[in-house]
Amino acid sequence: MSKTIKYFLTVIFFFVFFPFLVNVKAADFQTSYRVVYELKEEGNNINSRANFLISITNSRSDVYVNKFAISFPKSFTISNLKVTDDHGEVKPTIEVDDTYNKIGMEFNNPNIGRGSVNNFRLSFDQANLFKVNGNVWEVILPVIENRGDSSYDVTVLLPETSTRKISIAKPRPSEINGREIKWSNPTTRTIYAVFGESQLYNVNLAYHLKNNNLTSANAEVAFPPDTLYQKIILESISQQPIKTYQDEDGNFMAIFNLKPKETKTINADFLIEVFTTPREAAIPQIRSAFNHQKTYLLDSQKYWEIKSLDKIAPLKTVEDIYYHVAKTLNYSYERVNADSVRLGAEKILQTPNIAVCMEFTDLFVGIAREKGIYAREIEGYGSSSDPQLRPLSLSSDVLHAWPEFYDETAGIWRPVDPTWENTSGIDYFSSFDLNHIVFAIHGKSSEYPLPAGMYKVENSKDIEVTAVTSRPQEQEEIGVADITIATRITGNKSHKGEFYIKNSGNIYTRNIPVEIVAEGLSVSNSKTNIVSLAPGEKKKISFDYQVLEDDKSIDRSLRVMIRDHELFNRKITISTINTNLLIIVASGLTALIALIIVIRRFR
Q1: Is residue 461 classed exposed, middle or buried when 0-12, 13-18 and 19+ CB atoms within 10 A define those classes?
Q2: Which of 147, 172, 387, 446 is most deeply buried (CB count within 10 A of its CB)?
Q3: pLDDT score recorded for residue 553
Q4: Mean pLDDT on 283-300
Q5: Given this model, what pLDDT does residue 234 score?
Q6: Phi, psi torsion values for 423, nearest 5 degrees
Q7: CA 339, 344, 345, 351 torsion: positive or negative?
Q8: CA–centroid distance for 178 within its chain
Q9: Where do runs of H (alpha helix) occur along 133-263?
Q10: pLDDT at residue 573 greater than cutoff 90
């Protein structure tokens, strides 16, 4: 009878940075994993009961597994651990070091022989796996990597009373059946899921401004803009700007006046809602703006220039570019807290092992533009609970950068994040998440405008972001300002008029139909559609008007309407006497009176 060999099998539960270790030959065994997470909602927390079924099938008659170990990242909070095998309870050993919590198990009476199966069943409570993050639930589930021919199934059971639905899943679940969500043999390094359609953030920003001149000067800052995936509500500003406007890229710009040598801090508070899908209301503006933006979105800008064209020659599609950047560059955690100099696309091609998020973004944009794909850079905030998985690295205010490309077929911008794909193993190409907040859009320039967090004094903390569940009231308020319309006109002359439509509300207003309705007057440019107005922004409406020849009435009215709502009504009085004649007569009378005065004085 041949000698039976005992083996000790060690598996590290892979969570991005943790390697897979095995002390036996894969051909000697077949291992299957069935993992079920049962969720329970308790107050503001989501607790989960993890249940593992690990089945080991012997492929040889002279070899079997006697012991088995599975290791979890130390960040996993595990309690109430229970282990059994096919013959009863197993008393596990637990080893803790700086990196892992290692659970060791030994079979009571393992089955021996080719084709025989031995099973371990583990169950434990884990309090910090599913995170309640403001308006959503979020989870990153670890996956065992390099499984060979082993099968691996993960199932999430939502609480019976929950009405939440999964909105983001990377990879896509194999099946969803009521509250049961299942992934069969996922090929990714992690499973990422979000439950909830949108996320709400309170965002408090500080902008430190200084005028070094001996005369007054204006300073311009970028507020978080309204975008295809992001809606803003402006809650407060410590000082009202002298002007707000939207630039060519769609940035929300504000101008403040500073006295000579003046230093001031502008504090602005926003409620920002981030969505999983494009906002239908924003699409017309996106497409309208792109018709102009495409005239410069292929330009070679500083940091986006690429000279080593041979290194990118095989890349054809935007997907090719994305995965080339995600897999070619290596994230440098050493540069995160250092005063790093931005390297740009060409230099990072030569030194791919020292990249941070800015270099991932610059390289993507540079290659895309070189290949004729419209692309731009986004600078903003990444909401990350684990900086190892999803690092932040633009400044001490945990800023983040990622690219967007324009999908001409769909007519929308699509954000991607090759940095977080590289560091987390989560798919950031086919779908995005609710953790990216836009502060500034760089399409025309690779450097301007500066995002919030870059208007600093020394090491000031200028950004506070908190996920919340409630929202302030939206105020949509459109009015008129600076009206210039003559109220008395002559009947034989064309007159010019103008006024401004102003957004005095706290949200962006889109698709504003402005109509000038005049009785007895002929008006040019009587209908205008304003694509969008940011809070505080105003747009000038200019027009010409004159009396209709066949209208003999003395008084007319001129009204400005928006969506059947009258903004103002101006009475226009028509003078029947020729104005030029009146001027001549008035001049003559003035001269005659002056002559009489002179004669009297002479006498």
Answers
A1: exposed
A2: 446
A3: 61
A4: 95
A5: 97
A6: -90, -25
A7: negative
A8: 30
A9: none
A10: no
In order of start, what are the domains of the chain with their CATH numbers?
5-196 (2.60.40), 202-468 (no CATH), 478-575 (2.60.40.10)
Determine contact, residues 471/233, Cβ cutoff 8 Å.
Answer: yes
* Type of residue at 230: Q
Cα 277 from chain centre: 11
Highest-confidence range of 187-196, 247-256, 276-285, by mean pLDDT? 247-256
217 membership: H or E segment, kind and range: strand 217-223
3-state helix, strand, coil split of the chain in percent (to 5) is 15, 45, 40
Contacts of 596 (CB under 8 A, 6+ apart): none
* Residue found by looking up tokens 């503006």 in the block: 285
CB 223 within 8 A of CB 238: no
Residue with tokens 């003078």: 575
Residue with tokens 């965002």: 203
Residues 100 and 164: beta-carbon distance below 8 Å: no
Which ranges constitute the DSSP H helices of 414-491?
418-424
Contact status, residue 181 vs residue 155, Cβ threshold 8 Å:
yes
Give pLDDT tens digits for 107-118. 999 998 899 999
Residue 338's pLDDT is 59
Task: Give the span between the Cα atoms of 563 and 570, in whole angstroms.
Answer: 18
Calculate the CA dihedral of residues 404, 409, 411, 412 and round it to 10 degrees: -30
* 8 Å CB contact between 101 and 41: no
pLDDT at 417: 96
Joined tokens for residue 274: 């981030």
**Phi-psi region at 218: left, alpha or beta (left = phi > 0; alpha = psi -120 to 50):** beta
Exposed, middle or buried, 383 (CB in 10 Å: 0-12/13-18/19+)?
buried
Helices (H), 252-310: 283-293
How is residue 576 written in tokens? 């029947």
Q: Report the 10 Å Cβ neighbour count for 99.
A: 13
Percent of the chain with pLDDT over 90: 56
Region of 299 please: left (phi>0), alpha (psi -120 to 50) or beta: beta
What is the C-alpha to C-alpha distance for residues 277 and 88, in angstroms, rounded to an integer? 49
| First CA to last CA distance, the chain | 154
Q: For residue 385, give every residue at least 6 positions away whose Cβ sits within 8 Å of its Cβ, in sequence order, or none.
A: 131, 133
Distance CA(183)–CA(187), nearest Å, equals: 10
| Position 81 pLDDT exceeds 90 | yes
Count CB-CB contacts under 10 A for residue 77: 13
Contacts of 133 (CB under 8 A, 6+ apart): 199, 383, 385, 467
Q: What is the DSSP letter of 5?
A: E
DSSP 17-63: S-----SS-GGGEEEEEEEEEEEEEETTEEEEEEEEEEEEEESSSSE
How far apart CA 256 and CA 243 sit, in angstroms, is 7
Name, in order, each residue with C-beta under 8 angstroms of 7's C-beta and a sequence gap of 6 or more: 23, 24, 28, 63, 64, 65, 66, 67
Single-letter amino acid code for the residue at 287: R
Q: Is the C-alpha dihedral spanning 484, 486, 487, 491 positive or negative?
A: negative
Mean of pLDDT over the chain: 87
